[in-house]
Amino acid sequence: xxxxxxxxxxxxxxxxxGKLIDILGGHFDLCCRFNGGSNAGHTIVINGKKYAxxxxxxxxxxxxxxxxxxxxxxxxxxxxxxxxxxxxQDGIDATNLKISDRxxxxxxxxxxxxxxxxxxxxxxxxxxxxxxxxxxxxxxINRKGIRIGDLKSPSLRSRLEVLLKQHQKRFPGAKALxxxxxxxxxxxYQEYATLLEPYVIDTVPFINEAYAQKKKILLEGxxxxxxxxxxxxxxxxxxxxxxxxxxxxxxxxxPQKLNYAIGIVKAYTTRVGGGPFPTELFDQIGERIQ
Length: 290
Prior knowledge:
Shape: globular
Strand order of the largest sheet: 9-7-5-2-10-1-11
Strand content: 5-15%
Order of helices and strands: EHEEEEEHEEHHHHHEHEHEH
Radius of gyration: 19 Å
Largest sheet: 7 strands, parallel
Distance between the termini: 37 Å
Number of strands: 11
């Protein structure tokens, strides 16, 4: 009976959000992912077949549900097409996917920078997934990031050069960064831009028009509350807002439109990445639970 429902993880992730979203997805017109990137991992099993979604919303298996990657998501385009190709091989149509033109792009060099940043921290490393999420969002906050809608821009080369030089200066001894093939990257992402065209729209009016038409909207969070950039176990957190506020900023939807929020917990706690975990079990019971 609720028009807009939000599903979030209430611990450190891996609570089973994807399973619930898949169960609910068929009852909603839209399933909208609002944060994170390919650092997420939502596993769904249908008729014995396992589907692992990292970027795609967990409602993708419902053909009558339109799935949205909102402006708050950071997108590794290569990973996105790998997931789409996997679905295609299983005979699953992905024409129900919409991608925000405002979503940030994760480039190959962002992953390199992520790895270098972790190595630099030594024993104090955060334990990131090394998917380039943090560096991409750092570029966004520095107002130098490149969005999905920019991939067809004539200024793409110059903007890529600015980004790359910035990271090369930060890690002057990193050969992989110094040798980065910007011509090859430019060609690759221009080709991706063409492939993305059927999916890319301004998702903000799309979602709000769906709301005005009384369509039911499911909001999907990635990661979890204890990994929130502000309210989590900082600095051992992810780089986005994983709590309820992230849904509104990451989709362009008013908080007043939310009817119901679901926080997912599990009977035992695990945590993703590094950082303090005082209740961790190192004995046989801990091993058996895992």
